[in-house]
């Protein structure tokens, strides 16, 4: 398992972490993605406790530095939705047996310390230890600097939506799978 290179605490989120985690996520939507909060896509961000803390098949991992949440990664038992994703992809990764890796976000001033890799490792370990999951699935916006290279180093590409234009022009969505340990 990878360990971050600086004094960080990495653990499952508690109710006390919800507001800090929400700030990391919302800042990422506005700063890195450029489109902000979208209610249809981001309900889990508003309802962190009921989505991640209260559901035993879900987890939100957080990294804290000096008591502040600086990075997040979640697992939810939902597959990709159709639409906007292709039907075959939604059928390959059904809700319930798919552990979808979500919200892998690190504040810019804490990047390049191994946090994303550590959080992903711990989230995948959670999925492997949780009965009923067959695989870990994720999709990413490869227009975000460093995202594509990172995911290619830890996951197997399943579908590059850029090649078909299925998500519309300028949308850099690539879908990946991580085998369960």
Distance between the ends: 11 Å
Mean pLDDT: 92
Q: Over the alpha carbons, how many angstroms does the gyration radius reach?
A: 15 Å
Number of strands: 7
**Helices and strands, in N-to-C order?**
EHHHEEHEHEHEE
The backbone outline, from C-alpha atoms, is globular
**How many helical elements?**
6
Largest sheet: 7 strands, mixed
List segments where confidence is low: pLDDT < 50 over at least 5 consecutive residues. none
Percent helix: 25-40%
Major β-sheet strand ordering? 1-2-3-4-5-7-6
Question: How does the helix and strand content classify structurally?
Answer: alpha+beta
How much of the sequence is in beta strands?
25-35%
Describe the structure.
The structure is a single chain. The chain is an alpha+beta fold and 181 residues long. The longest helix is centred in the first third of the chain and has 16 residues, at 18-33. The chain has a 7-stranded mixed beta sheet, sandwiched between helices. The chain has helices spanning 18-33, 43-46, 48-53, 87-92, 115-129, 147-154; strands at 9-12, 59-65, 68-76, 98-106, 135-141, 156-160, 173-178. The mean pLDDT is 92. It has 6 helices and 7 strands.
């Amino acid at each position: 398992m990878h360990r971050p290179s600086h004094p960080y605490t990495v653990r499952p989120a508690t109710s006390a972490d919800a507001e800090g985690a929400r700030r990391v996520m919302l800042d990422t939507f506005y700063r890195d993605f450029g489109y902000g909060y979208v209610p249809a896509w981001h309900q889990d961000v508003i309802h962190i406790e009921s989505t991640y803390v209260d559901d035993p098949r879900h987890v939100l991992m957080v990294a804290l530095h000096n008591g502040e949440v600086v990075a997040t990664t979640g697992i939810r038992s939902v597959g990709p939705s159709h639409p906007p994703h292709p039907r075959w992809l939604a059928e390959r990764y059904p809700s319930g047996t798919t552990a979808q890796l979500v919200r892998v976000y690190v504040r810019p001033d804490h990047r390049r310390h191994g946090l994303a890799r550590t959080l992903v490792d711990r989230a995948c370990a959670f999925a492997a230890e949780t009965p009923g999951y067959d695989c870990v699935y994720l999709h990413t916006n490869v227009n975000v600097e460093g995202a594509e290279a990172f995911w290619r180093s830890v996951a197997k590409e399943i579908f590059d939506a850029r090649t078909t234009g299925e998500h519309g022009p300028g949308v850099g969505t690539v879908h990946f799978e991580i085998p369960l340990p």
